[in-house]
Every structure is written in C-alpha cells, then in structure tokens.
C-alpha cells in the first residue's frame, strides 16, 4: 500500500495550493483528480474563467463560436499550467482516478481502466467541490436540449432561444452573456422579483436594465415538466404556461460533491444540506481529515476556497488562530453588465440588527467617469453606523464594482471609518472617486 504524508482529493483551488505548500515543506503528497479535463479545478475549466471570458467577448461583440474557441484555448493553457504547477513539484504526485474512502485512513483510487490502488496517509484533505442541482422535474430531463452551466459552455452552436431556470448567479450571468451573443433569453424565477436578498433599489435597477437589454423574465414560476419536441424543448411552468425554446439551462444551485466518496466507510458526517461537517479549523469528525472549498458547504467561491487553504495552513503550521470564524465581510460580485458587488449589510438588515444605521445612494449617471465610459447605468449605495463610524455595507452596481468592493472590504475588515473613504484624495477621473460622494453621509 502506498504511504503518503498527505492525500488531497480533488484539484480545486484549496487543494492545489495546499499541495504546493506541503511539498515545499518536504511532505510527500498525493493529489488525486478523477477527470483529466479538470486539472486546476472547477474555476479554471468550467466556471469563473470561461464564463468571464465569454462575457467579455459577448459584450465586445465577438461571434459566439469564435468566443467558444478562444475560451477553449485559454482554459486548455491554464489547465496545462495548473497540472504542471503540482505535477512538477519535487514531493507531489498527481494520480488520475476517483478517490473513495475505505476507512478513516485509507482511500482506494480507481483509474479510468478500472485499476485500483489503495493508499494511506497521515492526513487527508477533501476538496471535491460541488456539482449542479437539477430539481426533480417530470419529463424528458435527459434530453440533449437540457443543459447545466458545464454542458452549455461546451456547445459551439448558439441557441436561438434559451430558457434559463433560476435567477441566481449562474442564471443572471448566463442571461446577460447569451443575450449579448444574440440568443433570445427567458429567465424563470420562482420569487416575485429578482435578487430578493439584495438591496431592493439595486435589485429594481438591475431588473430594469436587464429587461431593457432584451432579457425576458417570468416571475413566481417554477419549471414542472419538460418535453423534447425534437425541434425544440417545451417547459411547463407551475402556473400552467408552456414555454418553448431551443435549449434549457438549469441554474438552480450547486450541491457539495460527496457522492461516491466512500464517506459511509468513515466516521465523517454530513450536514442537513449534504455538506461535510467541519469544525472551525475545517477538520471533519475524523481529526486527521480536513474538508475545504465547496464540499464543506457555505459560500461557494474560488476565493473562499483559497481562504480555506489559509485556515488549514494556520492550523498545521501556525498558531491556529485564523479559523473559519475569523472570516468576516465575505464580499461577492455578480458579473452582470454592469457588475454588481456587495459586502456587508443592507440598511434593512442593519436596522434589524439594532445598528443606528444610515445609508446614502449615488446614481452612476452623476459620476464624471461614467460619461467617459459611455455607461450611465448603475447605482452605488453605502450603509454606515453613525455611532461608531464603521462601514456596515456597500452595494455597488456599476462599472468596476468588482474591483472597488475590495477597497471597501479592506476598510471594513480593519475598522477604517467611512469618513476615511469620504475624505481620501483619489486620482481623477476614476470610478473610486465616487466614494467622496457616496460616503458623505
Ligand atoms: C458557472 C460558474 C461560474 C462561477 N463563477 C465564479 C466566479 O466568478 N468567482 C468565484 O469566486 N466563484 C465562481 N464560481 C464558484 C467557484 O467556481 C467554486 O466555488 C470553486 O471553483 C470551488 O472550488 P473548490 O476548491 O471547492 O473545488 P473545485 O475547483 O470544484 O475542484 C474539485 C475537484 O475535485 C474533483 N473530484 C470530485 N470528486 C472526486 C473524487 N472522488 N476523486 C477525485 N477527484 C474528485 C473534481 O473533478 C474537481 O476537479 C462559479 C461556479 C460556476 C459553476
Ligand atoms: N460571480 C460568482 O462569484 C459566481 C458565479 C456563478 C456561480 N457562482 C457560485 O455558484 C453557485 C451556484 O450558482 P447558481 O446560480 O446555480 O445558484 P444560486 O443559489 O445562486 O441560484 C439558484 C437559483 O435557482 C432558483 N431555483 C431553484 N429551484 C428552482 C426551480 N425549480 N425553478 C426555478 N428556479 C429555481 C433559486 O430560487 C435561485 O434563485 C452560487 O452559489 C455561487 O456561489 C458564483
């Protein structure tokens, strides 16, 4: 039986970063990846990188097939680079195969020819990500016209009409992207409005802009039945309405990838939502087994997976003070056009939590840089605590918000008062100088 210091299952953001860290510390490392097309993990191959590249090309007016070809070239190069970033390490080996636990301290790796190899290690790190959820729906769910984000990104023919089920991150990013490429896009949203957990003014502004760009929305509806009519696909909605298109994308969430991991042969437990149960150091119920990234539940982002690596590194080699509970102000960006980025609380949430909160808002049409950019859409909002001077939240819908939100998060993490952003001297003419006005509360 092969013996390692560490076995890492899954080539995700946390796993590959950890492999390099451990190898550089002279640990003997095995990294097991079941899919040769996934070296580097989800983000590089089927998620962040291809979608943002396609969005870029769609908004640039590039033709769909040529954008898909460019995407395939870029992710192919990144996949190769990522493979070598681990395979070329002096103390790490990449194994192609599916890893399954057979006990608390052994895994069996099965390669694509069915060959099996049992391995053991002092420590195990599970980084197997998440996969698309397709809700229980009757009918021809196995039709070639039914897609997840992964399979749609593999298609080089643009659907004339695309139905998207779900109005979350994937639903809205794909809606904007495919609409810009020229598809007629309809998004089915179960709620009565878009983005019900976001600031209502911003949600309204985004809904209006997306509708103005030609995206159709059907609110208060769920997909209940799907029928492949050979030349098209028809979805029957909860209200009885039928909707035909050329392709249907399920953008209905992603669940932790614990299937076929053999966890039933271990003492590792799952949460109610199917994620691996971990403590604040990301240890599972089995002390020498950690879980990192999407598989451990919670926020599903590449940067939170990378931060999981930091937590584990601190537990293994530091004082263990940086834990899951130390993480604050998790920010995010929805890469629509323009993008929407958020950190912290809305005014309503802040008031519910008892803060003496006040907000300010600033339409991007009033900002000089917006006129240079020829992009007047957008709305920035900030929420502050008038007693402590702390920033409680920022909700930035506008050009460059994906960059600007990091500045706000830095201020929030370090308790820099909102007046510092208000009074700072910014260069000119740039989007960040909006903070002179936005934080003038
Ligand atoms: C369409 C889309 C767009 C996204 N856009 C963004 C974005 O813009 N920004 C952002 O921060 N996040 C984005 N995300 C989320 C982000 O991609 C994920 O949160 C992140 O990639 C998760 O990384 P991870 O470290 O958990 O593991 P992953 O990168 O998911 O890696 C898991 C790996 O484990 C392998 N594996 C699974 N089971 C086994 C097994 N039993 N044996 C061996 N190998 C196994 C898989 O093949 C996979 O390669 C997006 C997601 C999607 C789907
Ligand atoms: N920009 C980014 O960082 C980015 C981009 C894409 C994905 N992601 C990550 O990927 C994860 C998955 O994205 P997602 O968009 O699939 O999930 P999501 O949780 O963001 O949205 C799922 C949506 O599907 C809806 N839904 C569920 N069942 C439905 C049904 N039967 N009919 C109609 N609608 C239904 C839900 O109401 C919800 O709005 C996200 O949680 C996010 O963390 C991040």
From TrEMBL:
Keywords: FAD, Flavoprotein, Pyruvate. Residues 5-304 form the FAD/NAD(P)-binding domain. Residues 332-437 form the Pyridine nucleotide-disulphide oxidoreductase dimerisation domain. It comes from the Bacteria. Its cofactor is FAD. Belongs to the class-I pyridine nucleotide-disulfide oxidoreductase family. This is Pyruvate/2-oxoglutarate dehydrogenase complex dihydrolipoamide dehydrogenase (E3) component. It comes from Jeotgalicoccus aerolatus.
């Amino acid at each position: 039986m092969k013996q390692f210091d560490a076995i890492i299952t899954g080539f995700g953001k946390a796993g590959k970063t950890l492999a390099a860290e451990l190898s550089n510390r002279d640990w003997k490392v095995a990294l097991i990846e079941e899919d040769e097309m996934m070296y580097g993990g989800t983000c590089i191959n089927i998620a962040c990188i291809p979608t943002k590249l396609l969005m870029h090309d769609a908004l640039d007016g590039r033709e769909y097939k040529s954008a898909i070809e460019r995407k395939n070239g870029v992710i192919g190069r990144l996949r190769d680079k990522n493979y070598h970033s681990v395979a070329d390490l002096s103390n790490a080996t990449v194994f192609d195969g599916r890893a399954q636990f057979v006990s608390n301290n052994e895994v069996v790796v099965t390669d694509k020819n069915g060959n099996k190899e049992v391995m053991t290690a002092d420590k195990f790190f599970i980084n197997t990500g998440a996969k698309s959820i397709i809700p229980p729906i009757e009918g021809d769910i196995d039709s070639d016209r039914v897609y997840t984000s992964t399979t749609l990104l593999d298609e080089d023919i643009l659907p004339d009409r695309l139905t998207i089920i779900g109005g979350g991150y994937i639903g809205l990013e794909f809606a904007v992207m495919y609409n810009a490429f020229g598809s007629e896009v309809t998004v089915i949203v179960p709620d009565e409005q878009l983005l019900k957990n976001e600031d209502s003014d911003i949600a309204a502004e985004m809904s209006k802009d997306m509708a103005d760009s030609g995206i159709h929305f059907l609110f208060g509806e769920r997909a209940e039945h799907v029928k492949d009519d050979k030349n098209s696909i028809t979805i029957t909605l909860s209200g009885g309405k039928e909707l035909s298109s050329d392709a249907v994308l399920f953008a209905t969430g992603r669940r932790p990838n614990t299937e076929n991991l053999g966890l039933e042969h271990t003492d590792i437990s799952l949460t109610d939502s199917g994620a691996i149960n971990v403590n604040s150091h990301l240890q599972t119920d089995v002390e020498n087994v950690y879980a990192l990234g999407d598989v451990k539940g919670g926020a599903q982002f590449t940067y939170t997976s990378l931060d999981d690596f930091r937590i584990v590194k601190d537990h293994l080699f530091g004082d263990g003070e940086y834990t899951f509970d130390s993480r604050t102000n998790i920010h995010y960006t929805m890469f629509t056009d323009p993008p929407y980025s958020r950190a912290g609380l809305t005014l309503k949430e802040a008031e519910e939590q008892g803060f003496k909160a006040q907000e300010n808002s600033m339409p991007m049409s009033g900002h000089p840089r917006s006129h240079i950019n020829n992009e007047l859409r957008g709305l920035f909002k900030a929420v502050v605590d008038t007693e402590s001077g702390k920033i409680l939240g920022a909700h930035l819908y506008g050009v460059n918000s994906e960059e600007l939100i990091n500045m706000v998060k830095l201020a929030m993490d370090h308790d820099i008062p909102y007046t510092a952003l208000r009074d700072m001297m910014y260069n000119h003419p740039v989007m960040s100088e909006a903070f002179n006005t936005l934080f003038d509360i």
